[in-house]
Amino acid sequence: MIPNFQAHPWHGIPAGKNAPEVVNVFIEIVPSDTIKYEIDKLSGYLKVDRPQQFSNIIPALYGFIPRTYCHDEVKKLAIESGSEDVKMGDLDPLDICVLSSHNIHAGGLLMEAIPIGGFKMIDKGEADDKIVAVMVGDHAFGHVRDITELPEAEVKRLKHYFLTYKNLPDEPAKCRIDEVYGAEHAKQVIEASQKDYANKFGGY
Predict the structure, then answer these.
(1) Which EC class does it fall in (predicted)?
(2) Can you give the CATH number for the domain in which 189 is found?
(3) What is the number of domains present in the chain?
(4) Which domain holds residue 145?
(5) What is the pLDDT of residue 2?
(6) How far apart are CA 122 and CA 139, in angstroms?
(7) Among 74, 151, 185, 199, which is least packed, fewest CB within 10 Å?
(8) What's the predicted TM-score (pTM) here?
(9) Which residue has the higher pLDDT, 58 or 75?
C-alpha cells in the first residue's frame, strides 16, 4: 500500500494547468489575522512570522503561487518595465492577494484565482511584486478581469497596506511601488517567476 503524504504547498502543487490565466494560490493569512503567518520553506507548515503591529491588517486574502520564485527573470522584467536600482528578486515565491466577498476564517488552504493586475514593489533593492487577483466564482469580485475595473478606493487600500505594513510609526517608507499594472503585465510577472522557479528547482 502506498502511503499518502500531504504535498508541500510550494513545491508539491502546480501553479495551475491554466496558469497564468487562472492560478492556484496557497493562502497564508486572512484579514482577521492579528498574527502574520508564512510558509516554512523546509517543512511546508505555516509558521508564526510576527504579530501584526498597530492597524496594518491585511485587507485581502494573502499568500503565494506555488512553484514560483522571484529572482533573475523577475528582476529583469522589473528593469525592462522602467524600475531602477533593482539588484535582485526577493528569493521567495510570488506573492498574491486575492479579493473575495466571502469571510474566510483562516489560512492554510488552496484556492483558484484570476490575476487582474498587481503592484511593482521594490523593497530595499529587491523586486517584490504583489499580484492582485479575484477568487474564481466570487459573487462580488469574480467578474473582474483587470485592476482598472476595481473601485479606486480598493486599489488605494491595498497599495497603502503594502507601503506601510513593515513600518513603525513615523519611520520613512522601507519600500516603494513603481507601478500599478494590469492583468497582462501580471501574467508576465507570473511567467517570469515560473522561469525563475524552473532555473532554481527544476521544471514547473
Answers:
(1) hydrolase
(2) 3.90.80.10
(3) 1
(4) 23-199
(5) 59
(6) 33
(7) 151
(8) 0.94
(9) 75
